[in-house]
Amino acid sequence: VTVADQVPTAEHLAVIYDAAARAYPREACGFVRTSGVRECVNAVETAGASTRTAHQGYTLGATDVLELAHSLDGDDPVVLIYHSHPDVGAYFSAEDQKFAVVDGAAVYPVDHLVIDVTAAGVRGARRYRFSPAAGQYVLFRSYEPPEVRGR
Ligand SMILES: [Zn+2]
How many whole angstroms from 93 Cα to the centroid of ligand 1? Predict the structure, then answer.
């Protein structure tokens, strides 16, 4: 069993789902290590070159990218990068592939988790893993939506 198989824990998922629900209708983003979840600032709206809104994409800020890169050499590396898809489902978009893959190789040795969120709440998540054969990220596994509490 590798670290990548132990992340995300149920606790990690609860934090991520909460972040996705709070960010709605914008996209939440961040990353996950064994030690916990880091919620990142969605830099899409502050990146001058982009005319997209946070609803249509995400970009990790420079500080977040540095922390991510540095973590990969340490004993608590980032295992997963997550972001939410408000209202469109947890597919891995062409933009997502562009962010994650350069010249047929994964930019970072991590999986990507996409959270399906609507106004009614989180409907689950899909995890994508880089396939060297395909030269892109492909569906690795799905996660159930959180249990509805109360009622
Ligand atoms: Zn996306």
Answer: 5
